[in-house]
Amino acid sequence: MPNDAFGHSQPALRTCAPEADVATRGFATRAIRTGQDPCKATGSTIVPVYQTATFTQEAVGVTKGFDYSRSGNPTRQALERQLADLEGGRFACAFGSGMAAANGASFSFLRAGDHIVATKDLYGGTHRLFSDVFPRYGIETTYVEMCDLAETRAAIRPNTKLFWVETPTNPLLKIIDIAGIVALKRPGQIVAVDNTFATPYWQRPLEFGADVVMHSTTKYLSGHSDVVGGIVITSDPELHAQVAFQQNAVGAIPGPWDAYLTMRGAKTLAIRMREHERNAHAVANFLDSRDDVSDVYYPGLRSHPDYELARKQMRGFGGIVSFRVRGGAERALELVRHLRIFNLATSLGGVESLVCSPWTMTHGSVPADRKVELGLTQELLRLSVGIEDEADILADLGHALDATSAHAAVYAVA
Ligand SMILES: *Cc1c(COP(=O)(O)O)cnc(C)c1O
Prior knowledge:
alpha/beta, Aspartate Aminotransferase, domain 2, binds pyridoxal-5'-phosphate, 12 strands
């Protein structure tokens, strides 16, 4: 049985539309259609949840393309095809969490003695992986301000193997020039991009020359805060083979139910992202208009230092807004207590609005002095703006700011 583009043999129940037709399809169509052909055996319109560990063989070595669910499962394969297509990639490997995917998109390519150049304000879990796990295997990481290409170039060593880019950054939403980083790369080096915040709807790093893209599908791709997962996408067959080997050898795979939930969520990515962005823009403008808010971080604001780069690299600015209130840490804590639409929770990218305090929550494990160095002060709050009605979201923020304005006044006098 011939192998399909995903490195698994192609099962009988999958048929592909003609290439030419598929290639011209728009994003929303791909999200709903790619990998989602009706089941040939039953006509099931929706890809079934293949809740099976093993696959019965007709004779020794004669399979329908699957033999064991760690190595390959039809529900997971459908998800991999769908998400690879959305990133404009040829291959994908799904993982059981975003961190397993981050490991798959880095460790798969590395050996003892290799060096990583990584974004300074990295997702906390990735920082922990690179700083507390990899050194035990002889892999070192240098963290740089990747918005500064000269600083990034200066960090490159003869043994640098991987550039790890996260843009927009978390939680200050700086924009890193993906093409600029790709231009620094020498043969044999790999540029990997964590595209979780932007999603392929707004940003497709492979188009700028990145080699590998990873996501925590827990966030926007699944979109409903009900499943943890990750994905690694590339168009390079060599790199894909290394990630697929890791996926099977280490076995950090998602179960079929999680693959199914993620795939179902991703079908509505286009329509959700448009709403997330519309609401986030409104929130950023609203916060920007308030005197009791000192800083607003949203790449879609003209005042954002990377606004022009964001416009060049992204098709839209996403759904995350960070801000600093006047009135210090006390007011930030008080404000969070007054919010009703925004749940106080880690994570992002679901349909519901969430608020978090990076200082204690997402970056709680980062040492205090490093947080201050990164600009993550206690009065900083990060919003994952959901797709509830705009008026309700703005009213909630307005109410919470008004209810805590005494703090701001005290602060101004003091
Ligand atoms: C959440 C997140 C991760 C980790 O993903 P999990 O699904 O929580 O393991 C990695 N990178 C970014 C940018 C994230 O937001």
